[in-house]
Inverse folding.
């Protein structure tokens, strides 16, 4: 009987409609297209999609962690560390490239497992745990390389960043990962366990499901996707740096929250995060173009706007959940 009750509960987890988020994205796109010159040029729109890729990939992992009631502030440091590992150990041979890719993906998964295991054995809030682990990963990155540098083989860069108009390998990789993890959340027991973990952990515990194992797995997914992001950034920038991932902790949370994911857990979707990542990337692109045109430091304004978007989104979804 308990199992039947549990199945009924997790099949009826809260789902927020992403229709409003996509409509808002479309409305913002129309406004920007009208007001910003050259924004709708095919080359620029293709660039927006490519710019969205690293944020979109890491935001998938951040969303899964947040759906389980957690948060991961270490994603930026993990990404930076992976870029340094890749640029330090990767050589020109195919065997070397494949070996380093596997090493980075394994390390990313281990970084995520580390966060999850700390949460299992110490009663500390995920925000504090991942903030501290972020400092650890950042310190390790600096210990290996204090400045931007290293070596990325040209063949790795060419394959990982290949682009043909609107189609690009990076965006194709993002879509593949999105479809895989969207299926995992919507169509598998593990996905329903994640929603239940964030919505009511006691439900899982009462039917004998190990909630700690589910939580650790969400952080492993996040770490794995940070490794993918780090590999892509290393390929795109042809180097590694302890600074490359610095913006992604806040931006990934912003993309998830703008997309309707509750910071309390148990509510949200990857479809919404997709729209949220698109919106954040679109604002970044617009501000970069304005900054270039008028010789402004657009990075300052980007931080302000992203902060405002994040605060407004959290307020909106908090009201929505009451």
């Amino acid at each position: 009987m308990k199992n039947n009750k549990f199945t009924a509960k997790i099949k009826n987890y809260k789902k927020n409609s992403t229709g409003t988020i996509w409509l808002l994205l479309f409305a913002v796109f129309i406004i920007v297209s009208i007001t910003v010159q050259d924004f709708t040029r095919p080359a620029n729109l293709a660039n927006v999609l490519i710019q969205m890729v690293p944020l979109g990939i890491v935001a998938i992992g951040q969303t899964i962690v947040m759906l389980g009631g957690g948060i991961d502030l270490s994603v930026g440091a993990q990404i930076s560390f992976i870029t340094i590992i890749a640029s330090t150990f990767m050589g020109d041979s195919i065997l070397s490239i494949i070996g380093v890719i596997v090493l980075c993906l394994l390390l990313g998964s281990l970084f995520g497992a580390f966060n999850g295991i700390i949460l299992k054995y110490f009663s500390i809030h995920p925000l504090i745990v991942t903030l501290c682990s972020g400092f650890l990963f950042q310190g390790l990155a600096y210990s290996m390389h204090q400045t931007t540098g290293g070596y990325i083989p040209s063949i790795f860069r060419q394959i990982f960043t290949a682009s043909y108009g609107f189609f690009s390998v990076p965006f194709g990789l993002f879509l593949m990962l999105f479809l895989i993890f969207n299926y995992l959340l919507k169509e598998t027991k593990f996905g329903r366990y994640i929603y239940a973990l964030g919505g009511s952990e006691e439900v899982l515990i009462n039917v004998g499901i190990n909630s700690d194992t589910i939580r650790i797995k969400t952080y492993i997914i996040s770490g794995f996707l940070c490794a993918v992001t780090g590999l892509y950034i290393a390929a795109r920038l042809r180097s590694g740096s302890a600074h490359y991932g610095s913006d992604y902790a806040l931006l990934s949370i912003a993309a998830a929250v703008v997309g309707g994911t509750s910071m309390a857990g148990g509510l949200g979707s990857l479809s919404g995060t997709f729209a949220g990542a698109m919106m954040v990337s679109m604002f970044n692109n617009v501000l970069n173009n304005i900054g270039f045109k008028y010789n402004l430091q657009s990075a300052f304004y980007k931080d302000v706007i992203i902060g405002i978007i994040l605060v407004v989104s959290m307020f909106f979804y908090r009201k929505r959940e009451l």
